[in-house]
Amino acid sequence: MSKQSITLIGAGLVGSLLSIYLKKRGHEVSVYERRPDMRKNRISAGKSINLALSDRGWRGLDGVGISDEIRKVAIPMKGRMIHHLDSSTVFQPYGKAGQAIYSVSRGGLNCVLMDLAEQHGAKLFFNERCTQVDLANATAHFENFETKKISEVKSDRIFGTDGAFSAARLQMQLSTDRFNYQQFYLEHGYKELVIPPTASGDFAMEPNALHIWPRGQFMLIALPNLDKTFTCTLFFPFEGPVSFAALDTHEKMLEFFNKTFPDAVKLMPTLEHDYFHNPTSSLVTVKCSPWTYGDKLALVGDAAHAIVPFYGQGMNCGFEDCVVLDGLIEKHKENWMEVFNEFQSLRKPDGDAIADLAVGNFVEMRDKTADPKFLLQKKIEARFSEKHPELWIPLYSMVTYSPHIRYSTALSEGQKQEAIMQKIMRLPDIEKKWDSEEVEQAILRELR
To answer: How far is Cα 415 from Cα 207, in angstroms, rounded to an integer?
Structure first.
């Protein structure tokens, strides 16, 4: 296998991890990032949703032997803690006993991955904005924000790992025929808030849970951090009678929060400052094709498939891209045309599937996690799955804890399961006999 010169555009989570995979294969890897080096420059608050690292992501980290390093900056969350309007709480475990997703700071994780990329020999360049890509010749042009110097970087391959608003993808849109592109925004945006540690320096809530305040058309969530804070995120309509636009004074905002999230407000001494000073950000889904240009360029991660955060799979999906790419490089002995073609054909259906699943899970989190009928359905599914694991893996478990199951397969299986459960939930007196032999046999008949 010949040593290749490879340029990555974007040193975010996926770009940093992919650079490690490529360096371990012996290639010369240079990574160009438009932002300053976040390890030296404090990242502004209010622009990041905490990440939920799950099995697909761990598999990506395991593939280059760095998962132990990342576990040092991750906090296990073993289930959802639902906060009701009356301030009571209910814990809903994820998956089976011992299963968890892990809260990690986006900035903290990115810093660790960049350190590891450099330790493996990748060269990282910052403040470099990609201005143009000559696709046919795998040549990228960059402008340095500080010096205004223009660089022309020729390499054998280019990977666009530069996120939802990818410059590499834009070049494909501008330069190629029949490039398909879709982007759509939710009517909801998000704003970051914070719950600090208690006066004694401890967590103010249960740290090993993802906290959710489901309120129908909107919700608040909170994920734990190593410094004993919680990063809170309000997902809220941009416009309308209950919206960011409507809560435009301190009085309106405080009245709304005290009425809607009473237990959270007591833990948020900087609520007013955070609400009015942190930015309100949008939530976008991006679908496109093709993801590759010959054997010269491939889009990876959010550049190919940006999704909303409600399944906690954006990073995990991007890390899985790295695993799939590495396997294809091995399979095709670095025949890059075959690698890129199969990467695209394999991953495009999965990228589209997790995008759709993520939007659907927003409705589940904000509307259904406090709905007794929905919770009963989940109990029936969990009981049946426990008795017949070969016949039924719940959708959440397929997506989150089953990296051997493709996202596209999880979506289609989940749709079949939901159709069956809608019939089961209409059985007379289902609330009284949900754990009966009769219900079990009814599901088995539907599966035949």
So the answer is: 33
